[in-house]
Amino acid sequence: MTQYIYEFGPKKTQGNATLKNLLGGKGANLAEMATLGLPVPPGFTISTECCNHYFDLDGRFPDSLEAKIALAMENIERQMKMKFGDKNNPLLVSCRSGARSSMPGMMETILNVGLCSSTIPGLVAKTGNEWFVYDAYRRLIMMYSDVVMEKAEQIKPQNGMGIRLNLEMMMNNLKNDKGYTNDTDISCEDMKGLCSRFKKKIHETLNIEFPDDPKEQLMGAIGAVFKSWNGRRAVSYRRIEHIPDNWGTAVNVQSMVFGNMGETSATGVAFSRDPATGDNKFYGEWLVNAQGEDVVAGTRTPNPLNNDTKNPQNRHLSSLEEAMPALYAQLFDIRNTLESHYRDMQDIEFTIQEGHLYILQCRVGKRTATAALNMAMDMFEQGMIDEKTMICRLDPKVLDDMLHPIVDPAAEKTAEKIAEGLPAGPGGAWGQIVFTSEDAVAWTKSDKHVILLREETNPEDIEGMRAACAILTARGGMTSHAALVARGWGKCCIVGAGAMKINAKTKELRVGAKIFHEGDFITLNGTRGIVYQGRLKMKDSLENPRFQKFMAIADSYRTMKVRANVDTPEDAKIALAFGAEGIGLFRTEHMFYGSDSGKPLFLLRKMILSKSKEERQVALDELFPFVKQEISNTLSVMDALPVTLRLLDPPLHEFVPQSQKNQQEIADALRIDLEEVLKRSALLKESNPMIGHRGVRLGITFPEITRMQVTAVFEACAELIQTGKNPLPEIMVPVTCNEKELAFTHKIVTDCHARTLAKYEIKTIPYLFGTMIEIPRAALIADKMAKYAQFFSFGTNDLTQMTFGFSRDDIGSFMNEYIDNAILTSDPFETLDQEAVGSLIEISVERGKKTRPDIKLGICGEHGGDPASVVFCHKAGLTYVSCSPYRIPIARLSAAQAAILN
Ligand code: PEP
Ligand code: MG
After folding, report:
1. Among 282, 303, 673, 860, which residue has the fewest nearby CB atoms (within 10 Å)?
2. Ligand 2 centre distance from Cα of residue 521 (Å)
3. What is the pLDDT, as a whole number, of residue 543?
4. Which residues contact 852 (CB under 8 A, 6 or more apart)?
5. What order of strands is seen across the sheet that includes strand 422-425?
6. Which tens digit of pLDDT belongs to each residue from 240-297?
7. 797: Cβ below 6 Å to ligand 1?
């Protein structure tokens, strides 16, 4: 029969720290601490398996669970020498949730279970402390009515005022009426009266009596803690953290110890090191005569644990070190025991009951990015952990926070949130809002800090996007144009903030009842996707020599190379500084977006709107020197490193001029009238441009375009070679689905190569020829594609788009519902869908290698900078990953961890 109950305590412990999945983090660590001989009050854990079984039974306990609980309770009773429900010597217990990974504050806890009319007098007599008993009782009433009687029963509070808020209001009114400052000032009589009035209010509001039977309280509390796994907060947290719904929570039932029994009792929370800086200093807060919730609730300013924890707010309050030195010394010893046992920073909850110290919980403590780095390095240097553990201690995702300026978390706490969207470009930024690209450029020129606000962006916004300090759009997904451009530039960006109504004409932004105008200040947290009103304080990014050292060690374990997706020499330099080992994707079309791109963009438009081959050739000839120069500049920066140059990809209509001024310019250049320009533009319009006339298809219909680009590459190389440089170009064909497309293009490439060798009279220009794999068909015929392709680069943006049939620019309108309804655990454009898109990659790798065993394999979709996806790429046997420059450190660390762990 399945074991659902695991006991822990000084006398008998059945679990240990390795049983996290079954006992949850809290239960597993309580068992481990009990075995270490630490003062843990006895109790038992009901497993996560039991929680899942409870849901399978539609909220009923499995048969015989009640009897097993009764046996386990007897065991606690024997150790505590008290009896649950006893009139004279009543045992009280707590019921706490605990999932396998910590979800702080997301699920429920009920304290003081077992207090009722029959046990109160006995406890009063035993403790001689009536105030304490009624304080404990009012806490039980508040927690129980909220968690068990309202939330677990899914009762919707009237006017949004839950029972707990009602009771809190009653308590505050009492404090105001009687002039009490703190809860501890409330007189015993008033506390008693409050308890009676609480119960009356509960009956009035919820139409049911507060339970007066200890067993009923206990079973109610256990069921409610299980149900809190499916509470709103917990579900939202799971979505954000990608925690599966079927993990379930354990319930820990434990003998109560009381921090609110007077001046020799206390409660507190401590971290074995400073969680904000990582300093090796014992850090924490405590309160005398209080229960745990008081420390975190913010109703009383907690005291500092010791001298190291004093700050301007708590400096005047006495530390535990000063007030109870012997207990502090005991706690400090426990801190050392736990750190050397777990070899990681621990978050510890403790209670002191009448001079006796108890430990109620320990878990790996949450920490900032900087603290994580410092702790890992310190522990390695102290010999507590080995090098591999040190490398795996830093979550690659937090590197984002270290490399970008961020919104000061303290400022964020009190800021007014106006909207939420997808966190497309990390870091934080404040600025004045502008509604057009032109305004963004103009305002920036006059030294203003601006945030460009657009419904969505198109290539014509690029100048404004470059100029603005941040970008905010109402539509678009994580790989929408705005998002990937912004990320590429390391720019803070939020896309798909659907609640915003933007009127670019009137330069007005409406969100609900709020209206903002051009020039109003807002702040973006691009790491979390939150938009705030006003200008918030920022914190500087970290230029940390320790970080450099850490990364150098990580690199020594890495087997995959890391390249960058960049398209300008400036960005190539940034990428090199972040540690790029080549360029994995140079999107040629981006040379027509950036600053100073007026002339080439004009020529490109002229080429696009040419009607005949001759007209087009004239435009291409004029365009050639620009393209060659741009490519040469980037190859020169990346000397001796591979540079994957992709042939022109996007649908041509994206470049068609929109403004009348630009249209007229083209008409004049082509010596045609405006009408004709409009007619030719209209001809380029497509119903589904993303699967239309783009990528290799352009080169099939207009081979002269390919010819111009490839000649530009080879001539740039020839000239660089003549100056002693060592360019290593890799010519990549996009959006292919048939090996004959490659054969067709390959012929042009070899021809241009031969012509360039002859023209420059040089023997060789080394290069590779390869293809993107971004259409499922191409993946499935990888063996044929590899006949021509010396390398594959997985374009997982399009491969995801085409595998799912989800438009990458339009997922904003439905992705949230997919995540909320657990149809998907994460946005597949952010984290690679290993099941299907991953299978296509694995198939391509296997089939490609069959034809060409030494084929080079890379990824250049946005997933190349996503930690989980990088781990997948390592396992799939890719040669390199390529991502935006600012994500290079993330990819480097993820690749190192993948090599260590696999
Ligand atoms: C891709 O599709 O993954 C890719 C890198 O190309 P793009 O994003 O330019 O379509
Ligand atoms: Mg693509």
Report:
1. 673
2. 36
3. 60
4. 786, 787, 789, 790
5. 417-420, 530-533, 521-525, 428-434, 450-454, 470-473, 492-495, 422-425
6. 778 888 999 999 999 999 998 889 999 998 999 988 778 899 998 899 998 877 766 5
7. yes
Can you spell out the DSSP letters for 341-402?
HH-S-EEEEEEEETTEEEEEEEEEPP--HHHHHHHHHHHHHTTSS-HHHHHHHS-GGGHHHH
Residue 459 binned pLDDT confidence (cut-offs 50, 70, 90)? low
Tell me if residue 115 falls in helix, strand or coil: coil
Q: Is 470 in the pocket of ligand 1 (CB under 6 A)?
A: no
Token duo for residue 838: 């991953």
534 closest CA partner among 620, 405, 417, 644: 417
**Ligand 2 mean position, distance from CA 649 (Å):** 8
Closest among 783, 751, 749, 784 to 767, alpha carbons compared: 749
Residue range 181-228, pLDDT digits in tens: 888 899 999 999 999 999 999 999 999 999 999 999 999 999 999 999
Q: Residue 484: which pLDDT band, with cuts at 50, 70 and 90? A: low
How far apart (Å, rounded) are the C-alpha atoms in residues 253 and 93? 6
- Residue pair 480/813 in contact by the 8 Å Cβ criterion: no
Using only C-alpha atoms, the chain has a radius of gyration, in whole angstroms, of 32
Q: What percent of the chain has pLDDT over 90?
A: 69
Instruction: Compute the distance between CA of residue 614 and CA of residue 375 in angstroms, rounded to an integer.
Output: 66
Ligand number nearest CA of 864 is 1
- The two three-digit tokens of residue 127, written as one number: 């403790």
Count of alpha carbons within 13 Å of 209, Cβ hemisphere only? 5
Indicate the helix (H) or strand (E) that contains 434: strand 428-434
Determine whether 189 is exposed, middle or buried from the number of CB atoms within 10 Å of its CB (0-12, 13-18, 19+): exposed
pTM score: 0.80
pLDDT of residue 235: 83
- Residue 91 phi, psi dihedral angles, 5° rounding: -90, 135
Model confidence at 867: pLDDT above 70 = yes
- Kindly state if the Cβ of 775 falls inside 6 Å of ligand 1: no
Structure tokens at 643: 């540079």
Residue to substitute in 478, 792, 860, 881 for testing ligand 1 pocket (most ligand atoms within 8 angstroms of CB) = 860
Q: Which of 259, 221, 254, 250 is nearest to 76 (CA)?
A: 254
C-alpha torsion angle, residues 433, 434, 439, 440 (rounded to 10): 50
Indicate which residue's Cα is closest to atom 1 of ligand 1.
Answer: 795
pLDDT at 738: 98
Q: What's the pLDDT score for residue 36?
A: 96
Q: Which two tokens stand for residue 767?
A: 């290069």
Q: Which of 56, 102, 245, 227 is nearest to 824 (CA)?
A: 245
Task: Give the phi and the psi of residue 860 in degrees, each rounded to 5.
Answer: -130, 5
Whole-angstrom distance, CA of residue 884 vs CA of residue 580: 10
Residue numbers annotated as active site: 481, 860
Q: Is any ligand 1 atom within 6 A of the Cβ of residue 565?
A: no
Cα Dmax for the chain = 105
The protein residue whose alpha carbon is closest to atom 8 in ligand 1 is: 797
| DSSP3 helix / strand / coil % (the chain, rounded to 5) | 50, 15, 35
Q: Quick: pLDDT tens for 2-45.
A: 899 999 999 889 999 999 999 999 999 999 999 999 999 999 99
Distance CA 830, CA 565 (A): 16
Tokens of 551: 């990364």
Q: Who wins on pLDDT, 409 or 830? A: 830
β partners of residue 605: none
**Residue 90 CA from chain centroid, whole number:** 46
Q: Say which DSSP state 563 is in.
A: E
131-172 pLDDT, tens digit each: 999 999 999 999 999 999 998 998 888 877 899 989 999 999
Q: How far is the C-alpha of 201 from the C-alpha of 171, rounded, in Å?
A: 12
Rounded to whole angstroms, the Cα distance separating 481 from 459 reads: 8
